[in-house]
Amino acid sequence: MAEKKRYRSAEWYNSKTHKRDTFVHRGWMRNQGHPSHLFDGRPVIGICNTWSELTPCNGHFREIAESVKKGVYEAGGFPLEFPVFSASESNLRPTAMLFRNLASMDVEEAIRGNPMDGVVLLMGCDKTTPSLLMGAASVDIPTIGISGGPMLNGYHKGEIIGSGTGVWQLDADLSAGKITEEDFVAAEISMSRSKGNCMTMGTASTMGSMVEALGMSLPHNAAIPAVDARRYSLAHMTGKRIVEMVKENFIMSKVVTKESFENAIKVNGAIGGSTNAVIHLAAVAGRLEIDLTLDDWERCGKDIPTLVNLQPSGKYLMEDFYYAGGVPAVIKQLLEKKLMNKDALTVNGKTIEQNNTSAECWNNDVIKDFESPLVKDGGIKILRGNIAPDGAILKPSAASPELMKHKGKAVVFESVEEFQEKIDDPNLDVDETCILVLKNCGPKGYPGMAEVGNMRLPQKLLKKGIRDMIRISDARMSGTAYGTVILHTSPEAAVKGPLAAVLNGDLIEVDVVNGKLNLDVSQDIIDDRLENYKPILPDIKGGYQKMYVDHVMQADKGADLDFLVGKRGSEVKRHSH
Ligand code: FES
Asked: Is 432 exposed, middle or buried (0-12, 13-18, 19+ CB in 10 A)?
């Protein structure tokens, strides 16, 4: 008789040489009532849970985990749920992004240090998806993802209201005196009316779609609403599948390759996905030792139209997207145009083509086609020039077409505090042709690269009815935001990147079609200004934040910590007892 396959967890629960260790590992687990047969060498499946009451978007994850467990048991596995750092976009200060890398370290060490043969990642709120993918990539055991799903559509005064996107609109209306404080609060109550993550095509839904496009989840992961029974069926199926993946030794790096990232970039263009995907995918790729650069975004994102008519680029919300066919209906169109790497594998062992070729679109106003897209040239545009030698990005589908080529006078803010203090000053020398420039909000400068790039417009211009202006910064912007906003300018001002050299009144030239972003000042003057520039640096005393600032890489590299890049594997050499 062939010897039974020994999985990684056998080193903890069935050691042939360290009997005392096995006693301790198994014995203490028994206090939870697990019967003996669960320690018989079957696949042990970790369920990596970002549940937290402080991360409201992931507040239902204990329920999702229960469905995953059912699937794991059904397939003959042994599920064990464990918590990890949950980075809440809505609550965490100074910005959840500062803690994405910390959470990824937690995930990585929790997976590596514990007896698990495969892991299910429960992801939802913005940073919880990349942090779990990054951590799991560094360990590289069989891994499958499931997102918590979006909230149901918000409704306010008979109209749909989208997470985030509605807030930016209402805030502008409140500043312009168009609505009252009471209206503002009433909208707040109408917006988040069920469990789930933001239901616009913000960063959470974008990253859920990226998980699907990378092949890291079962089809339909991104769009099934959090409260829809089919979300729980998907979780059940996910649990069942991870046990098979362990038996097949189908590790994460066999699923996610350079081709998968290229597919994800194309899907991001077609869904009108968040600019944050650029930074998160770069970080996940870095962990897998896959070289993914802004040039790949340029190459793969070129000529991809935005098909999905969702806020912030369009009008609908994720619930509508699911009913219209979701990500599979988008991938199908990309496959038909021969734009996908069709043989890229996915977690169910099938190719992306096999998974999506029979998808259907049920509403072509929500998911448009190539002949009449929402935006002809969608995706993410990469801009380069003497302000951003290592690149900056812009999302054309959320921008104003008339500002795509523009020369304007810079109105400069050295910090977000200076911006807040001066933006509504009636004496501020600004009109709608100017370009707002914000410095020192990059990875090291903020620290954590906050989502402050979509600076609010001056009240005096809002009152005139102006709703968009060009804005440039080294910050990020919320995936739910919109506007002609140039982000991730690299290198950032805090490391004396040339953004630091921009002064009030300088002329800046933006040419999105040709990917240009230039300061109309000679290189000698820029160099001279930079030599004398004193960045405004955060006052950090120590701890994780100090480590972050010392080691964080620039935005174009994914803003990961330099020592976390590269795969480190699942081996643990030393025993604990
Ligand atoms: Fe959590 Fe938007 S705040 S998904």
From this structure: middle
Is position 575 within any domain? no
How many Å apart are CA 488 and CA 133, to the nearest integer?
Answer: 22
Residue-wise pLDDT for 332-363, tens only, equals 999 999 999 999 999 999 999 999 999 999 99
Chain Cα centroid distance, residue 542: 27
100 C-alpha to center of ligand 1: Å? 14
Q: Is residue 21 part of a domain?
A: no
Query: Domain containing 393: what range?
Result: 381-538
Atom of ligand 1 nearest to the CA of 90: 3
Q: Which two tokens stand for residue 353?
A: 């083509």
Residue nearest atom 1 of ligand 1, based on CA coordinates? 125
Atom of ligand 1 nearest to the CA of 202: 2
* pLDDT < 50 stretches in the chain: none
Cβ-contact 340, 272 below 8 angstroms = no
- Measure 107 CA to ligand 1 centroid, in angstroms: 20
Q: What are phi and psi of 573, to 5 degrees?
A: -80, -35
Going by alpha carbons, the residue nearest to atom 2 of ligand 1 is 198
Nearest atom in ligand 1 to the alpha carbon of residue 58 is: 1
> For residues 333-364, b (16+ Cβ closer than 10 Å) or e, as one string?
bbbeeebbbbebbbbbeebbbebbeebebeee
Using the atom order of ligand 1, give the atom closest to the CA of residue 55.
Answer: 1
Q: For strands 44-49 and 78-83, give the pairing.
A: parallel
**CATH number of the domain enclosing 440:** 3.50.30.80
Given the DSSP bridges, would you call strands 435-438 and 470-473 parallel, antiparallel or unpaired? parallel
Q: What is the pLDDT of residue 255?
A: 98
CB atoms within 10 A of CB 277: 26
Q: Looking at ligand 1, which atom is closest to the CA of residue 57?
A: 1
The pTM score is 0.97
CB of 455 within 8 A of CB of 473? yes
Is residue 237 in a domain? yes
**Same structural domain, 305 and 437:** no
**Could you tell me the distance, in angstroms and rounded to a whole number, from the CA of residue 181 to the centre of ligand 1?**
23
Write out residues with Cβ below 6 Å of ligand 1: 57, 89-90, 125-126, 163, 197-198, 202, 204
Indicate the DSSP class of residue 382.
E
CA of 228 from ligand 1 middle (Å) equals: 18
